[in-house]
Amino acid sequence: MASRQRVIWFGIVFQPNGNQMAVEMFRGGHAQPFDVFNLEDLNEEVIRSLITRLLVEASS
After folding, report:
1. SS3 57
2. Residues contacting 49, CB < 8 A, separation 6+
3. Is the dihedral of CA 38, 39, 43, 46 positive or negative?
4. pLDDT digits (tens, 9 = 90+) for 34-59
5. Which of 7, 21, 28, 48 has the smallest count of CB within 10 Å of its CB?
């Protein structure tokens, strides 16, 4: 028997605004605000956390 898999398509937009970065996620043709963070705080831990949260949100 073939298993059914759910395919999720989503896009991510990073919009710089001064010293902040707005993140939006597109699902089902609609943009949804996701998060805003300061560019001064941008480091590997912040990026990993953002990616993890985006993947969790996209799969829900």
Report:
1. helix
2. none
3. positive
4. 888 888 888 899 888 988 988 888 77
5. 7
Separation between Cα atoms, residue 31 and residue 14, nearest integer Å:
12
User: Does residue 14 have a pLDDT over 80?
Assistant: no
Q: Quote the pTM value.
A: 0.62
> What percent of the chain clears pLDDT 70, i.e. is strictly above it?
78
CB 39 within 8 A of CB 19: yes
For residue 18, which phi and psi values (nearest 5 degrees)? Answer: 70, -120
Q: 20: Cβ–Cβ under 8 A, 6 or more apart, which residues? A: 36, 37, 38, 39
Can you read off the two tokens belonging to residue 23? 């993140």
